[in-house]
Amino acid sequence: MNIATPPPGGQRIPVAVLGATGSVGQRMVSLLADHPWFEPRVLLASERSAGRKFSEAASWILPGPIPAAVADLEVLHVGAPPDVPLVFSALDASVAGAAEKTCAEAGSLVVSNARSHRYDRDVPLLVPEVNADHLDLLPHQSTTGGIITNPNCSTIGLVLALKPLSDRFGVRRVSVVTLQALSGAGLPGVPSMHVIDNVIPFIPGEEEKLEKEPLKILGTLKGSHVEPADLVVSAQCNRVPVLDGHTEAVSIELASGASEDDLWEAWVGFRGEPQRLELPSAPRQPIHRIRRPDGPQPRLHRDLEGGMATAIGRLRTCPILDFRFVLLSHNTLRGAAGGSLLAGELAMARGLVPGVTGM
Amino acid sequence: MNIATPPPGGQRIPVAVLGATGSVGQRMVSLLADHPWFEPRVLLASERSAGRKFSEAASWILPGPIPAAVADLEVLHVGAPPDVPLVFSALDASVAGAAEKTCAEAGSLVVSNARSHRYDRDVPLLVPEVNADHLDLLPHQSTTGGIITNPNCSTIGLVLALKPLSDRFGVRRVSVVTLQALSGAGLPGVPSMHVIDNVIPFIPGEEEKLEKEPLKILGTLKGSHVEPADLVVSAQCNRVPVLDGHTEAVSIELASGASEDDLWEAWVGFRGEPQRLELPSAPRQPIHRIRRPDGPQPRLHRDLEGGMATAIGRLRTCPILDFRFVLLSHNTLRGAAGGSLLAGELAMARGLVPGVTGM
Amino acid sequence: MNIATPPPGGQRIPVAVLGATGSVGQRMVSLLADHPWFEPRVLLASERSAGRKFSEAASWILPGPIPAAVADLEVLHVGAPPDVPLVFSALDASVAGAAEKTCAEAGSLVVSNARSHRYDRDVPLLVPEVNADHLDLLPHQSTTGGIITNPNCSTIGLVLALKPLSDRFGVRRVSVVTLQALSGAGLPGVPSMHVIDNVIPFIPGEEEKLEKEPLKILGTLKGSHVEPADLVVSAQCNRVPVLDGHTEAVSIELASGASEDDLWEAWVGFRGEPQRLELPSAPRQPIHRIRRPDGPQPRLHRDLEGGMATAIGRLRTCPILDFRFVLLSHNTLRGAAGGSLLAGELAMARGLVPGVTGM
Amino acid sequence: MNIATPPPGGQRIPVAVLGATGSVGQRMVSLLADHPWFEPRVLLASERSAGRKFSEAASWILPGPIPAAVADLEVLHVGAPPDVPLVFSALDASVAGAAEKTCAEAGSLVVSNARSHRYDRDVPLLVPEVNADHLDLLPHQSTTGGIITNPNCSTIGLVLALKPLSDRFGVRRVSVVTLQALSGAGLPGVPSMHVIDNVIPFIPGEEEKLEKEPLKILGTLKGSHVEPADLVVSAQCNRVPVLDGHTEAVSIELASGASEDDLWEAWVGFRGEPQRLELPSAPRQPIHRIRRPDGPQPRLHRDLEGGMATAIGRLRTCPILDFRFVLLSHNTLRGAAGGSLLAGELAMARGLVPGVTGM
Questions:
Q1: What is the pTM of this model?
Q2: pLDDT, tens digit, for every residue of B156-175?
Q3: Does some domain include residue A315?
Q4: Does D300 reside within a domain?
Q5: Looking at C21-117, which runs of residues are DSSP E strands?
Q6: pLDDT tens digits, one per residue of C52-66
């Protein structure tokens, strides 16, 4: 985390986490504990956890102890909106929609990791390096606060890999087969009896998201809505016995000719607004080239730049489409908790957090 | 195993196994122990094992004890060709080529699991249900015995799935991403430090085989050689922490229109010569439809019909090619040891084993 | 399974399974499908499953398809006792106690895998090879049917190993550290995020059971109750990423002197009443000696004799107590479903199943 | 790593690593790259690696890239002793003995991770917190440099847990059953086919080391040799599918009475010479108490204090000996590479590195 950049308003602002006890929520809390701009002040969860200390309510699964700054916070019920300018939501989609709306109406800016509002016409589906301009949808929203959404964990790595190619060469068709980590299913998530010595070639709803979300993210802002990109994605999703890190085998068809060197140059040189603004959670280099012939691999490369970078390797031509490659992205850091924080930081730098002046 | 069909000549014939102590060799020995046609008489391996009892030379990895029929056989060195009419080879490609040639020259029919002779012009690359007619290449070989090869483990399941479609609708292009089991790498094979909590998106030489072998297998016999099929395959191969069973996510483009029901009908109704001849190792139904939405899965479906059937599920249309599906095939049974035995049985039924009359 | 022994009454009797959709329930149903004495007629489960076909209600986790004989049975709610003479219960302890009592009062003999009634004074805690005589407690029960219990999965392998030593040499103290499989926790059971690249050195309630149950099982029948054995057990229980098969590192102190050969002789020659009666589920030899220096191992030895045998290896002296060894027992076969069936068979052979004459 | 303490002589000294490409060697190189006292100048390995760049010779298995400071170093053959004052050896025991001797004779102080010299009468078997005084054996050695050895990875965690108890209450007997990580077997180490869905209840030579080494480490220095401690250890060792972190289930008998609180107080308050000297690799608190009921666990607690702390949990009385508990120690950090570095630091602080003045 880039701790050199001071908060826009000069001091940390209080934030809340909805769904703080789950697997993504724990990652959020862990990242927020020492965050230079945000201070985790309110943790909310379901009825089962409400009223208990965070350290007792959360079945902690991350290495190391629960951060002292939050261990003793009392977990509140998600029913009542917290009185903070910025709310991060790691709620399950089954309850996220309404709860997030309530917070936005109460005046908070909500950065959501759930799918509930992703396709709302006036809600940005944000990957800060890719479509920062979509934040201009926010003023079109009817709530006093606002809602920003984070895409699905398998979408983020893919869209980061596509963006530099889309900008330079155009991308027409994408075929992607994923090998997704277990943490993507949350807690309790996938039973161990289902995945030891096994893979599961199906993740409910995942292929639909991965085929649809990139079109909005790579789409063009037209006033109060986004025109979807002219792109076809075919996705096949598999669950594998890996704790963290989604691996994706990708084939792409470009609109114009390019060499392997052209693609590497586009990827390695790619920088977005988070890099220009030196946001605290921004990786210095969003895309890393992995040169070893058998990489990227989840265990070796998921933690590059604090889990915020996408690793790409094995670029080669494809006998059906144009090119093939393998990408890897940390699904609960870049793909969920870290991605949400970066979105919140971008919103704050832009002066979109209620009551806080931007950079 | 179908034990009802008596051996063509009325009694079991003696066979040898080259490379008996490895992971595929152990499977072969295990299947041969109670085989109704073949009797494992000679076990051969590298210098390190030669001269020891099989039970001491093999670091046994299969559930259950070493079969009593072979436990006390002395392992011989692969240098001298065994005096048996039929030899199964599970040797590593680095030594298989020469050793198999020696056996064929000494008068044995060799069924090989190694890649060494797969592309020899006069050597059948055999999947018994798919290209039994390619056995007509044998008389064109120069040795007194002969060589038949078994394709790569990831090829077999794919070709079995393609054959019925190829016959009825024509197959033009195939995109396949594999999630391959560890046993495919043999012993000692993949270090455990490399695959716990990890996947490896690269298997040396595997993609080349998977892109090339189906063309020969699905090709047309023209006298003394095979004309490759007009087919394009794009393969991306991954190693996953699964013991046995290769999972493959496949997209295909057909030459003529077909519905999902047409494909299922072609697959489920498919039968080949092993089924017509009721060969001992032949599955009754080579392709099984898996109806649960999250199947096939390695642990649940790899052992269908003694590991000799291919399981297919998740058939759906593809926005880029025509259809997508998931297939699963046991890599050391159907994909190696069992496939070799079936090839040997077919050769025997056809009267191609030296000195043995066919069915 | 020994299918040569005909049912005592000449034909299969109808049986019911309580909790048929769970991990142990599925094993029971699987074993009952082709059972020579019992016919699975009624499957019962919780409200969530009731009213659905078994094939739809059960999230099937065993290799191979759901047996045809039960796939279409409608699952009933556990509330109403089934009208069959023999009931196998795989219910969770939270609901087992009352449901089993209801069945027993309605006239069925219940063989339970739950802990609810294990310490009831008049209820046998039965391992058929070990304490068949404890079935004489049954007439002392107040219900018209009756209840027999199966011990905890980690207890059964241990008690089978202790019994032959206890008979010949006396056993005074036992120190046992377990490495237990995931299936012991049922379904959904242990989250995969908790055990990939991990072990958990704690299983709630397990150590207490393993320290207490052997005393009752190895105890002496005194009319209407069992006098506990004079034995001290120290247990430390760990969960490891293994699907099936509990491994136990054991140290023992004997009452009288013995050599390693004496112990092996006692174990290998051990036979109990199930062997004398040739019950269908009885292993021919309850305890197998594993001679390889690195055995027994779960994946290699858990399925010996259909998962009903206990494997022992690595016997050596102990510098603190007298001897040390490693044992392995299949926790959902011998340790649960198979153990329950064997208990049911023993009860039936003895004429203890209501309305059925014994052997 | 405590980077606040400056090197005794004011600047980093050049060091060499023997066996730099293996699994422990990689850890050493990784820790040395940014070490405040030591500068990795010479990397040595077997013939196969010699002459290649380190980045090409090492099959890197640690998360993140190879440190830039060493990536381009040419790997030298272990045959010729490096001209540096301090050498860390991660060689396999089969070659370590002679190579280390050669270095010591050439004038370097060697800190070895191999077992070759552990029982040499004049060689310290060092755990810096436990027996720093054993360094006084060094002047009795005949070489101009010297040899210090690091104990076996499973010994270190155990001895750290025993030391505070031994000092206060006396320890008479210890029964320990281990669940050991795969990295302890090095590279290629345990084949993945052997440990997926499995445990292996045997590690060659391990139990002997774990029963013998603690006696020397906890023994009393008597001039030129160490009088072994009066202690009996019974060890049973298992390999489990965990990447890093040895878990040990321990029972102990004390010489004098103590309460659980007494034990916790002894452990948590324990400090050794590395803590007093604030050595760079020293954990601030060598032993951490884990309060959650299901801890310590390898994935959650192995990295405490950079992998240099021992975690203890589940303390409770034992019905056979006095107390039972579970400990966890990182086997390639504290148990190998990190432990060696700490030993090197202690030697340097004491002025035992040739040509370097101590603190």
A1: 0.96
A2: 999 999 999 999 999 999 99
A3: yes
A4: yes
A5: 38-45, 76-77, 86-89, 109-112
A6: 999 999 988 898 889
